[in-house]
């Protein structure tokens, strides 16, 4: 499975001439940056796990991104200004973000109007969320981590826990990647249903 991004960035808005993302630590090596980013974001994830940010609407995607990546990138919490694709499949056009965010707001409203605590029904809706937020892909980097936290908090609203990033579980990761890249809501629904648990 490929993992390549292609984007229009003729003025090097996000990367230097070697393709390394500009970062607050001025790191010039891609591998070093990956480690640095992982350490900084993991620390922020621990904090946000302890005190989750309340979902106020689609704007909370931006709030979560800023919180997680504030130590690494100047553009933390800012929507991308380039169009990107993965494995040749384009994500949502940045010029239409306003429409995309409004659609996510509608999904949040529908989710909150579900009175049932039926785990399957909630898994179907959360999978729809994940598919649409992934297609929106509003940030140049960090979309996966933001959408997993976004869904975790939405599950908490219904008294459920959802960990889409369990440690050392390649099966979950592969299903997650397969479902999101191929926009396969059946795979995502089954995965989320399997992982949803009652909040202790």
Key terms for this structure?
about 200 residues; mainly alpha; Fic-like fold; three-stranded antiparallel β-sheet; two-stranded antiparallel sheet; 5 strands; about 50% helix; globular; protein adenylyltransferase
Named at the architecture level, the CATH assignment is Orthogonal Bundle
The low-confidence parts are none
Give the overall silhouette: globular
Alpha-beta content class: mainly alpha
Give me the strand/helix succession. Answer: EHHEEHHHEHHE
CATH superfamily: Fido-like domain
Q: Regarding CATH, which class?
A: Mainly Alpha
In CATH, the topology is named Fic-like fold
Helix content: 40-55%
Main sheet attributes: strand count, strand direction, barrel closure: 3 strands, antiparallel
User: Taking all residues together, what is the mean pLDDT?
Assistant: 92
The percent range for strand residues is 5-15%
Instruction: Determine the number of helices (DSSP H or I, runs of at least 4 residues).
Output: 7
Beta strand count: 5
Radius of gyration: 17 Å
How many separate domains?
1
Strand order of the largest sheet: 1-2-3
Report how far the terminal alpha carbons are from each other: 36 Å
Catalytic activity: L-threonyl-[protein] + ATP = 3-O-(5'-adenylyl)-L-threonyl-[protein] + diphosphate; L-tyrosyl-[protein] + ATP = O-(5'-adenylyl)-L-tyrosyl-[protein] + diphosphate
Keywords: ATP-binding, Nucleotide-binding, Nucleotidyltransferase, Transferase
Protein name: protein adenylyltransferase
Enzyme class: transferase
